[in-house]
Amino acid sequence: TGGRTVLDFENAAYETPVGELSGPVRTQFGVHLVKVTDRRPRRAEIQARHILIRTQSDAEVDSATAVIDSLRARVLAGDDFAELAREFSDDTGSGARGGDLGTFGRGRMVPPFEQAAFELDEVDDLSGPVVSRFGVHLIQLTGVSERPSYEDSYTELRQLAERLPRTALRRQELGREFIDEVGGTYDAPLVREAVMQYGEDAARDSVLALGFGDYAERTFATVGDSTYAFDDVIPTLRRTRYGPHPAGEMIEATRGFVEEQAVQQALARLEERDPEFARVFQSYAEGVLLFRVAEDSVWTPAKEDEAGLRAYFEARPGQFRFPERRRVLAFRSSSDSLLQAVRGRVSDGLDPLAALDGRTDVQLDTLYIADSTQTAVDAVLTMTLGQTTDIILERGRRVFFLYDALEGPRDKSFQEARAELVTGFQEEMEEAWEERLRERYDADLYPERVPPTSSVQPDRGQGPGTVVGG
What tens digit of pLDDT does each residue of 232-265 get? Predict the structure, then answer.
């Protein structure tokens, strides 16, 4: 996918149709011909589990494959994959979890394993024997994550972009463009003279330990009206990682320092150079300021005013109520056979806690359902009291639900209603705060002047229907 190779190679791969060959592509590695053999959408992250039979040599692969084949047949015949993983897997870490590997995406597993895992289409599908450098695997798909939205992926995409070599190259170009725009100088002979004053072999260690000596305060570069002396570049040189030619790399890092200073100046002046950015930035800054003022004046005081919240609650008897709700017990485990046994005991009428028989590898949770949640627990809405659902897969684990009790409507206690109380109390305080602001700043509203199709909300004192100061 994008960002995995150098840009020119990536462009050739994406622009060449399937089955065809690109023209010659030059990169820093050489000259390439790229043939595209297949193209498919990038798949979201998956959840999977595996059983591993380790091999120490090629001679052991056949016997390990035979074991995996037999385990695959047992799973297809109805045996629990998790129990088999605990018993047979040589990967003791995942084996103790029933073979569970959690959630992973492309590039996290060794290539043969990854290819086989991502070729599984449906939850519970099994691979054939998969040979990797670790041994032979049996893989089962247990879940497929939803593809995140652009907004949800933004932070990850930004981090990826910042790591790409092409981003560093673009920063260099931006710095050079800014220097061309505002003017600048770079005294290359002076830089070489200052770096080499201790001799080529000792340049790095001497400069980093002793500094530039007599050159320290001499100016070697300018960007616009800013000047840079050798002392300014010392922190950058100390952060630089050096290879076999440190003197030349120090000289290159010094030029890079100047270009980065130009980038920082360009960013600092972006509001002046880009009116659209200036508008967005001002809107953002004002929005953050308004948020902080509202937080300090309304939201935090409302949340922390215990006496005010209680008075708000007591003044509204009967307003905060639970509807009729079904109490549901959820039994979760990674082991299908274990849940089958617990479900059998519950169905026979045994008390839920007694049905667990002290086991800690079954998680028991209590849920309250009033109407549809658009999840698997909705099955209880059509069940009779005391009935259980079938065992189903939920985010890589097994679960069944017991319809345990029906609770009638009732008033909420203060603590049960607290979230609603805070919201309502904040709205009340916000209205009072806005009224005080209107009085203080002599603000009048003329909603009749706002066009009917406008999305402006004149009752909040915003937009063209607002006059401040009369």
Answer: 999 999 999 888 888 999 999 999 999 999 999 9
Strands (E), 82-188: 100-104, 130-132, 135-144, 184-186
Q: Which residues face 31 on adjacent strands?
A: 26
Using the structure block, give the residue that is written with the tokens 């401040």. Answer: 468
- φ, ψ of residue 420 to 5 degrees: the values are -65, -35
Length of the chain equals 470
Kindly report the backbone phi and psi dihedral angles of residue 129, in degrees, each rounded to the nearest multiple of 5, phi listed first: -60, 130
- Is 241 strand, coil or helix? coil
Residue with tokens 């005010």: 308
What is the enclosing helix (H) or strand (E) of 9? helix 7-15
Identify the CA nearest to 380 among candidates 408, 405, 345, 356: 405
Q: Is 382 exposed, middle or buried (0-12, 13-18, 19+ CB in 10 A)?
A: exposed
Contacts of 455 (CB under 8 A, 6+ apart): none
- Return d(Cα 408, Cα 368) in angstroms, integer: 12
Looking at residue 453, what is its pLDDT?
A: 65
Helix (H, G, I), strand (E, B) or coil at 2: coil
Residue 26: in which H helix or E strand, if any? Answer: strand 25-27
